[in-house]
Amino acid sequence: MERFDTLRHVSIGQYIPGESVVHRLDPRVKLLAFGLLVVATVLATTYLNNALLLLVVLAVAWMARLPLGYLLANIKPALPIIVFFALLQLLFYGARPGDRLLLQWGTVRISFMGVRLVIVSLARFLDLILLTSLLTNTTTTGALTHGLERLLAPLNVLHLPGHELAMVGAIALRFVPILGEQLESIMKAQASRGVGFDAGGRWQLIANARRVARLIIPLFVDAFRRSEEMMLAFQARCYRGGRGRTHLVQLCLALRDYVALLLSLTLLAAIILIRQFHLP
């Protein structure tokens, strides 16, 4: 049963209290900086870009006083899928004109650019996981809701539900660790009744798919039950969306917020320049 305990320890969506400068940043600035760094990650197609991004993310994690092992715990559940798609890229990318061929076996050709693509893709995935963990580990769900609602406030002029969209995002984020715990409970219950989770090995995708299929239905039933309970709770509190609502929490930007936003813009500009000049 101990092998199921890691499912509840996914750090995405779990707030870690702290007094670091990263924790004290305005949630609007955190969301904007997160968006800018995600764009930078998408544009990072070179080793230099990804190394620069990784150094920045690790520096932010150090400033937030978050253990790196805790942040990397999110990669473990998805590691088999990551390795599977990395192998697909490596084996079927092929060789482009002028590309150096490293290995050829029948129709499978592994090229230098294919290896580079796999390394860059893995680095991007690592950056995205760490960025998402940093955002949720240093910001409460309530603060994220307030920040996202303020950022989506211009949508109200267009008669779009900015408050409701922010609420949906906050609820989805809060349910990540809850569904992880529920999935762990279902797996333990099925294992106690003789359902095997070790047949075929961890890396056997077909066997894993069959085992996952046995978990989907009870997990979805529990998710729908929780959704119905939340809907009744909203109705009991006479929730009517963002129309006419006032704000108890007033957000105010400080000097550190402007500095953080400026540094994020500078990093994005550096990534674009490195990409423009085709640096390695």
A few lines on this structure:
This protein has 280 residues and is mainly alpha-helical. The chain has helices at residues 27-43, 47-63, 68-72, 75-92, 112-137, 141-151, 162-192, 205-236, 255-276, and strands at residues 101-105, 108-111. Strand 1 and strand 2 (108-111) form a beta hairpin.
Which of globular, elongated, flat, extended, rod-shaped describes the shape? globular
Number of helices: 9
Q: Which stretches are poorly predicted, pLDDT < 50 over at least 5 residues?
A: 199-203
Q: Output the radius of gyration.
A: 22 Å
Report mean pLDDT, rounded to a whole number. 78
Largest sheet: 2 strands, antiparallel
The helix content, as a percent range, equals 55-70%
Q: Kindly give the count of domains.
A: 1
Total number of β-strand segments? 2
Spatial gap, N to C terminus: 46 Å
SSE order, one letter for each helix or strand: HHHHEEHHHHH
- Strand portion, in percent? under 5%
Derived from helix and strand composition plus strand pairing, the structural class reads mainly alpha
Strand order of the largest sheet: 1-2
